[in-house]
Amino acid sequence: DGGITQSPKYLFRKEGQNVTLSCEQNLNHDAMYWYRQDPGQGLRLIYYSQIVNDFQKGDIAEGYSVSREKKESFPLTVTSAQKNPTAFYLCASSMDRGQFYGYTFGSGTRLTVV
Amino acid sequence: KQEVTQIPAALSVPEGENLVLNCSFTDSAIYNLQWFRQDPGKGLTSLLLIQSSQREQTSGRLNASLDKSSGRSTLYIAASQPGDSATYLCAVTNSGYSTLTFGKGTMLLVSP
Mind listing the pLDDT tens digit for each residue in B16-50? Predict the structure, then answer.
């Protein structure tokens, strides 16, 4: 079945450490997105990519970095510059930038700073 | 900047009731509106997608309407069941830059 796979499901980060969240899709979608979800704040856009080797900052990109070397993959790195990284991270993709077919989401990664 | 508001923030109903969740948005320049369901600790499951040119979409016991000019959408759930308990999120795809803007969700609890 086609879908989006996020790994790991749970991730623990020590202070000052960089961690990378994986997002892989087999839907042949061009566009991919990273969202952060905090209790009471809804989902906020971190980065998005509409084509391979290109990506744009979202509303809360500071302290995060991404790459898009392959159509199927859009990993997110949470750097030590992100002061409050504890959150639920969701990856999404769309065939046509969401214009007609909407968005598909993965099952999420919960990141906790220890 | 697009803002999406969902009312109520939480709702508790007995099984069998029909209920309505509300969503409003400030900028009518949208491609579509999508309703999602989220179970605790899980990802988002798409329920219904309404294009900006459409007035409503139906799937089983769910019916979503869209009034683009007034910036409103409703999600109607008929004959609610305990399995409907979840958080329901409304999101709009903004024209031009094609990104999603979400509301904060309505947390629904259906009691047996």
Answer: 999 999 999 999 999 999 999 999 999 999 999 99
Mean pLDDT, residues A23-40 taken together: 94
C-alpha A71/C-alpha A51 separation (Å) is 7
The percent helix, strand, coil of chain B (3-state, each to 5) is 5, 60, 40
pLDDT, one tens digit per residue, over B95-112 is 876 789 999 999 999 999
pLDDT over threshold 70, residue B65:
yes
CA distance A86 to chain B (A): 14
Single out the residue of B46, B57, B1 nearest to residue A98, CA to CA. Answer: B46
Q: Which of B45, B98, B104, B106 to mutate to test the interface with A (most CBs of A within 10 A)?
A: B98
Question: Is the N-terminal amide bond of B8 cis, ω within 30° of 0?
Answer: yes
User: B73: Cβ–Cβ under 8 A, 6 or more apart, which residues?
Assistant: B22, B23, B24, B25, B33, B35, B50, B64, B65, B66, B67, B90
